[in-house]
Every structure is written in structure tokens, then in C-alpha cells.
Amino acid sequence: MNGYRKYFGKKILWLLITFIFAVLLNFILPRMMPGDPVAVIVAKSAQGISDTSAVKQIYENYAEAFGVDKPMTIQFFTYFKNALTGDFGLSFSQYPRPVADIVSSAVWWTVALQFPAIIVGWLIGNLLGALAAYMRKGFDKVLMPLSLFVSSIPAFGVAVILLVTFAIKLKIAPISGGYGFDMIPNFSWSFIMSVISHYQLPFWSIVLVSIGGQAVGMRSMSIYELNEDYVKYSRFLGIKDRKIVGYVFRNAMLPQITGLALSIGTMIGGALVAEIIFSYPGLGTTMLQAISQSDYPLLSATTLIITLMVLAATFVIDIIYGLIDPRVKAAQFD
Amino acid sequence: MKLKRVLGLVLLLAFTAGFVFAGAAQDASSSAAPDANPNQLPRSETLYYGGQQWGAVNGWNPLSDDMNNALALAQSAGGSRTLMFETLYMYNLLDGSMTPLLADGDYVWNAAQTEMTVKINSAAKWSDGTAVAAEDVAYTFVSNVKYVNGQGVGNSPYIESVTAVNPSTVLIKAKLTAAGIAVNPLMLVSYLGSSYVIQKDWIQTVEARNNNDAAAVKKDPGEDVVFSGPYSKYYADDQKVVFIRNDAYWGQDASMWGKLPAPKYISHTMYADNAATEVAFKAGEIDVDQQFIPNIQDLWLKDNLPISTYINEAPYGICVNMPTAWYNQDIAGLENVAVRKAIAMAVDYDAINANAMTGQSPTFQDVPRSLMNPTPGEQATFDHNAVADLQWAGSDIAGAKKLLDDAGIVDTNGDGIREIDGKNLSYNACAPNGWTDWMAAMEIVADAGKNIGIDITTEFPEWSVYSTVVTAASQTDYDIFMMWTDSATPVQPWGRVRMIMSSEYNGVEGNWSGNWGHYSNARVDELLSMIPIEKDAAKLKSYYTEAVKIYLTDVPSFSLMYRPDKFHAVNESVWTGFPEFQDGNNIPPADLSDGYGIAGLYHITPIQ
Predict the structure, then answer these.
(1) Looking at the domain assignment, is residue A30 inside a domain?
(2) What is the reported pLDDT for A228?
(3) Cβ separation of A40 and B39 shorter than 8 Å?
(4) Lowest mean pLDDT: which of A55-69, A92-106, B168-182, B580-594?
(5) DSSP 8-class letter at B374
(6) How far, in whole angstroms, is CA A11 from its chain's centroid?
């Protein structure tokens, strides 16, 4: 028990150190980008105003409102203090909208799209990979090249193919948005159906891309495991194939679980391609906009959420590994 | 066993997909039919816009510049958007006229042109039923100045005061020079068509709830705003904004439109980018689209879609803007007129028109270059014969080479690049990343350099970086770079001459106003001060002609194309009767929303 405590204590310590550095970098890195966020906003207000002192006045008003005229250290402590209470300030690019409001309205679309897509892609990919390894012959000969082909198509390629095929040519799927262009959100069957139908293309564009990679990885791991001594020994002992497959699958799964956890940890970054191609709401396009317009508060908030989720995911994995795989814990003690 | 289970799962997934696609098909077809459900906008009563609103609406407060509410709040000298808030007059870019909106009859100048009087239409009402009064106009001006918003800082250098003489009469006094003449009377005319009138009572309500704190007043989302226009908020979220017609709108009075605008709803979906907007436009989910679509004629010629533009042949729109390449005169070599003119002469403008604009611009053979846009009104302001010798149409490689040779700018070391004082002429040509038509134009400028022995390479920084550098008081990062010029407004072409050549912008940090190459010419400054107050048409023409001569001789910058202020394309799947060039209605291509363009909403009808 003492070994576990030491193992967990060490993990938590590293987690805290990583977190502190991550928060620091979250603050500093966006501010190192070239470009002046105030200038971008002034550009919108000042077009058509020909009086230069007037434009300067507008610039100074915004600089003061955003606090970018204050020293970096003061900006950091203000940011840190406010972030602890969930206040990420006002967005520059969507001023005067609070960052928390932007993130909270976008994040559920991202989670609702990404989480099921990652899980479904992972399940189908791993099942197909394991099957290919176990059955070999025809199945493998068809599945392997197919998986390689699909996984090598860029995500935007898959999204565009789906859009053109199902939405534009066949007209059996909507072309864009999170719900019908002619609807107002409400609790009705037609609205729910509209949301479900708008969900399809972005969802499958993510699933299709992830299946290939998962299948290829799982197949390799399974083939490796099938040739292990314990498999041969089990066969000599006369253990049923079904039982052996269970052992093989469990061992081959370990690295795949790491991949799954990291995918879930980073999903908040948004399915950028799906969001852009299908104009689907979510955090991906919000982040892209924050980057292109040097919107530090919005960018810091979204990257902080990603950081926290990745840290949480890796921490949970470390803990689960420590529990389910004694070799990992032993290696840590060494 | 296991295989069966797996195959079962895969089949189940496939079945689910098929089922939901079927649901999608059902959803798409049902949405085409009119529906009494208030949560589903009846297609035949809704006009869909595209290309105007990017990102969620922040609010409805016309005192703020930050509401990101494109359809409700857009105050511009080229014609403000009057769907929800209204101006005194509506500017028409076709003929420069000002049609009364909240005003009654024409504005009247005093003899010295230092004051103007405007009468308020007695029929004009706010959405709460009270009358629009002169005091509202006066208080709006005072508030704009007090809260330092775009309208306040933009107008206060030219307008001394706006006061209510009586409930229906507004007196606008110009700021005067030391000589007692108006600083710029043109700016007062511009104010009439650009500045919204906001209800005094509502402003005072906002001031009270924000304790008169200027920053708080401007951040107030104004959900309870009182308005005078025909539309107001119906629904808004991150994905769309919907306006509903105010059926009690005062404009149905016989003294104004005599009826209500045709669409009951106006909706704008937020698309991710231009490509997504174009797909929706082609699919008939957008009726009025404001975006550049390359080879737009293919949509009706090849795709047989019911799509059209304001003019049914090239350039398809009224081009009033002149995106321009500016020479940074702080860079060695570019202070040399021969270098500047040689590059400008060598550029293949026809290629820019064909590639960057896909033919949606008049050529420089059609409209020879000057400081004026191609509209007949601006073209009439200068003497064409007097400047003909100075104009160039482009692709003149031999002429450009001769010009450089004659100036002694030659290649002495045989590397193919000309030198001045032993230094190679090597420059970058910049445009913001993602502004594809500008980027394509700069590539062609770079090619022109190669043809005449000047090394020009392109660079495309992000807009946030680009705009910071270009607007700096001085910079040495960009040598040749693109920026816009003014479109059609009541102060043109004076405003564009000022934007392109006025030295008042030199040395100004954060200069968004013009002359980004930092050119300086005392005579130009003198002309700029004389033109706004000159009443003699012949003298005015001679001033403008002189300005054009200086521009074509000194080449501080050179325009690369002519562009419309708004790209105005319509899909007639659901609505018809959109404004067209010379259709007898004189409605400008302003997306049925800006300036007198809003008259289009009273002419369209749904296709039954």
C-alpha cells in the first residue's frame, strides 16, 4: 500500500509542477505573437474616420479598457487572480463579450460532437484492427489497405467529400450549421431531428478519419501479442481460443487506451476541420479566430482548458496503469 | 461468434447512419414548405442575408462600436444600414443624392454655408409610439461626442453643434476656421446620411442604469433599445440572428414608403467562411449575398442557378473602390519617382483583373487611372484630356525599362537587378494573408518587377501583424503594400484625394486614415484645404485636375483594380424583383439595406 501512496504522491507532485508551468506558458505564449490586438479592433471602428487624432483617441480607449497598456507582470497577476474564479476577462475580438460566455456557449457543441465521435471511431477501429490480426487472410488483405487509404486522406478531404456527396449532390444531408437555417431553437421533435441531421456529416467525418489509424495500430499490436510465448504456451495447455483472444486483446489495448485518453483530453481544441467545412458551432473556430486576431484572453482560456483536460487525462491514465499493470508501477519505482 | 457480433455492430452503425440521413432528407424537404410554426421561419416571408455577419451578435446598443451586429448597426458615410436604426437622409451612391428618411424635405444651407437646417418628418415615430423629435437628433450628437464613439470622434472635428430649434427643426452648425468659413461643409452632408438618430429618453435610461460611466454605457448590450426602423430583434445566438418586421413601422405612412417592406423576417446565419457562405448561397439558403465570388457568371451560365448580379455582364457591379499598392517612401530607392512609375507602368493590370477579380472590374483601358472611381459623377470632376499623357494602362515593359535607363538606374554588375548607388533594387510586396484577391494582385506586381530588373518578392503576414505595421508612424518592414481607398460617399472625390496624398497623416502613430506610404506635397495639402469650400464649378474642376496630375506624375501609390463597395448578388429561388442597373428605380447595389439601397425591400416579392 505504501508503494501505491508513493507512486500517487509522485504523480500528483509532477502534475502540480506541470500545471504551474502550463499556466505560465498559457499567459506568455499568446502575448509573444506578433501583432497588436487593439489595432485589429480599432481597424473596425476607425474605417471611414479621416481625423487622425480621433482614431488615436479610439485606440487609447481600447488599450485602457483591455489593460494592455499596463506592465506584463501586473497583467499576469490580474489574469491569474481572475482565472481562479473562472473569470477570463473580456474577449478582444468579440469585445465586450466575456470569454466565459463565448467558451460556455461553444464548448457543449464541441463535446457533443467530439466525445461520441472519438469513442465510436476508437471502438470500430480497434475492433476492425483486432479482427484483421486474428482472421488474417482475405479480411486483412482488404481491411489493411483500406484502413491505410482512409487514414491517409486528410480530414478536410473526407469532410469535403461527405459534404459534396451527401449534401450537395444527393441532397440528403444539410449543408451547414448546428441546426436548420430556417429554425429557431425550441423543444420540438422537428428541431431535435434537425439537430440530429446536422450532426451526421461532421460526426462521420471525424469517425472515418480516426477508424483507419486506430485499426492499423491495433492490428500491429495484436499481431505482436499473438506471437508472444504466453499465447503459444496457452495453446499447448489447451486453453480455448476465445479465452486466449481475451488475453491478447487486453494486452494489445494498453497503448490504445493511452491514445484514447489523449484524444479525449485534447478534444476541447475542437474538430476544426469539421467546424469550418460544415460551419458547425464549436470551440475550434473560436480558437482559430482568437489566434488570427491576437485575442489573448480567449486564447488563454481555451488553451488552459485543453491543458487541464490533457493533464487530467494523463493523470487518470497513470493512476489506472498503476492499478491494472503492475509493470508500470514497478518501472516507476526503479 | 465474435465475428458475428462485430459484424452486427458494424451493420447497426450503418443502419443508424442510413436512418438519420433519411431523417435529414425529411428535415430538408419539410423546411422548404411554409409552416405556421413560429419556431420555423416561413421561407416565403424570410429574406436571408449572407456575408455580412461574422460571429455572434454582442448587443443592440447604437452608442457602442462593439456590438458586432452587422445588420442592425452599420453607420457609414457610404450609406448607413437602416433596417433597425435610421438616419436623417439616405445616401445613394448611384447619383450622390440624399433622400429624406427621418427628415422632411431637403436640408437647407445658410448663405455662408456654415449652418444647415433639417426638418423632421412629422410621421416619424419610435417603436414605443412616441414621435421622433429634433431633440433626439441633438442629444444623439452630444452623446456620441461625450462617449467618444466612432460617430462622435468622426464628426466632432467638423460639426460645432447640433441643436433643436423647435420639436421639428434641427440646426447643425459647422466648425469654423480662423477665417470664419466652415472647416469642411462636405462632412456635414456626410453626417446626415451616416449618423443614426437615437431616442433621447432611451439614452438617458442607459446613462442612468450605468451611472453615466462612459465605458459602461458603451458596453451596455441595449436589449431594451428603442428604434425607428422597420425591423428589430427576433432571435440571436452564436449561429444566427433573426429580425422581425415591426408592423407598426411609421414608414408605411404615405409621406415615406407608403407600405411595409416585403419580408416579415430577415435572417443571417453565421457561416465559418466565404466558402461555406457560397455553398449556402448556391443552395438557395441565402437570398442576398455580400461576398466576392470568383467567376460569378458561371453560377448562371454553367450551373443554371437562379442567381444574378446588379449588372448582368462584366463587371457585374458598380465599382467605387480602388484597392491600391502603396510605396513606402521611407525605403531607399522608392523615394525615386522613376522607380515608382516604372513598376506601376510594368504591372499587368489585365492579368490582375482576370485572375484576382475574375473580370469583375472595369479595365484601365475602360476607365483610365486617376484619383476618381469609375462612377460618372466622379469621372466628371476632372479634365480627362489634361491628364491623358500621364496615364498608363500597364504591361508597358519597354517604356518602364526606358524610364529607368534614362534615369541612370541600370544593372552594372550583371546580376540582372538594377542598382541605385551600388545597391540592388530589391523590395517586398505585401498583402494580408487570406485576402486572396489582394495576394494574387501582389504576385502580379512582383512579376512586373522581374520583367524590368527590379527584384520584388511577395510576403503575406497575418492581418493583425500587417495592420500594426502599415498603420505605424514609420516602418521599414513593408516596401510595397496594399490598402483600400474610400468608396463612394458625399465627400468624394475629395476624401480619396486626401486619403491618398494628404501629408496630415505623416508621423501619426496608429494612422488608419490614409497616405500609408508617407508621401508629402505642399501643393496637394493646399488643394485639399481649398476644394471643400470652393463653390465655383470650373475652379473645382481645375483643382481636381491638378491633383490628378500630381498623383500621376509623382506616383505615391497606384491603384490595382476597381472594386464594388458591396458585392451584391442575389438568388431568386424564393424572392424576385431585386434592384438592377437602370431598371428605372435608381436603387443602388447596396444589399437592400444600406443608404437608399433599403428601397429594394419595398420592391421585392416572393415567388409563389
Answers:
(1) no
(2) 86
(3) no
(4) A55-69
(5) S
(6) 23
pLDDT digits (tens, 9 = 90+) for B242-296: 999 999 999 999 999 999 999 999 999 999 888 889 999 999 999 999 988 888 9
Distance (Å, rounded) from C-alpha A317 to C-alpha A257? 8
3-class SS of residue B164: strand
When pLDDT is cut at 50, 70 and 90, the band that residue B38 belongs to is low
Report pLDDT for A38.
78
Which residues from B are below 8 Å from A184, CB to CB? 38-41, 234-235, 242
pLDDT in tens, B7-37: 344 434 443 444 344 333 333 333 333 344 5
Q: Is residue A226 part of a domain?
A: yes
Residues with Cβ < 8 Å from A182, sequence gap 6 or more?
B31, B40, B41, B43, B46, B267
Average pLDDT rounded to a whole number, residues B529-534: 89
Residue whose entry in the numeric block shows the C-alpha cell 501583432: A35
Q: How many domains does chain A have?
A: 1
State whether B27 and A182 contact (CB < 8 Å): no
Distance from CA of A333 to the nearest CA of B (A): 39
- The reply to whether residue A197 touches residue B471, judged by beta carbons under 8 angstroms, is no
Domain boundaries, chain B: 45-50+230-317+567-606, 89-208+210-218, 319-564
Residues in A touching B269 (Cβ below 8 Å): 176-177, 181, 279
Contacts for B539 with CB less than 8 Å, ≥ 6 apart: none
Say if the Cβ atoms of B25 and A172 lie within 8 Å: yes
The residue with cell 463579450 is A97
- Output the domain CATH number for residue A117: 1.10.3720.10
Closest CA to B497 of B360, B378, B345, B415: B378
What is the chain A residue with the closest CA to B269? A181
Q: What residues are paired with A98 via a beta bridge?
A: A90
Could you tell me if B575 lies within 8 Å of chain A, comparing CB atoms?
no
Q: Is A245 on the interface with B (CB under 8 A)?
A: yes
Contacts of B462 in chain A (CB under 8 A): 34-35, 292
Q: Which residues of A touch B271 (CB under 8 A)?
A: 176, 279
> Each residue of A149-187: pLDDT tens digit?
877 888 888 899 999 999 988 988 998 899 999 999 988
Residues 214-243 of B with CB under 8 A from A: 215, 218-219, 234-235, 237-240, 242
In a domain, A246, yes or no: yes
Please state, in angstroms and rounded to a whole number, the distance separating the CA atoms of residues B590 and B290.
9
* pLDDT of the residue at B434: 80
Instruction: Residue A171: give the domain boundaries.
Output: 103-287
Residue A182 lies in a domain: yes
pLDDT at residue B505 greater than cutoff 80? yes
Q: Which of A72-86, A191-205, B193-207 has the highest average model confidence (pLDDT)?
A: B193-207
Secondary structure class of A30 (helix, strand, coil): helix
For domain B89-208+210-218, the CATH architecture is Alpha-Beta Complex (3.90)
What architecture is domain B45-50+230-317+567-606? 3-Layer(aba) Sandwich (3.40)
Distance separating alpha carbons of residues B301 and B305, to the nearest angstrom? 8
Q: Which CATH architecture has domain B319-564?
A: Roll (3.10)
Q: Which residues of A touch B272 (CB under 8 A)?
A: 176, 275-279, 285
Grid coordinates 487506451 are at which residue?
Answer: A257
Q: Is A205 on the interface with B (CB under 8 A)?
A: no
Phi-psi sector, B406: left (phi>0), alpha (psi -120 to 50), beta: alpha
ipTM over the 0.90 cut-off:
no
Contact B20 A55 (CB under 8 A): no
What is the rounded CA–CA span in Å between residue B515 and residue B507?
11
pLDDT tens, residue by residue, B454-497: 999 999 998 878 888 998 888 999 999 999 888 888 888 999 99
B486 contacts A197? CB cut-off 8 A: no
All residues of chain B having their beta carbon less than 8 Å from the beta carbon of residue A166 are 21
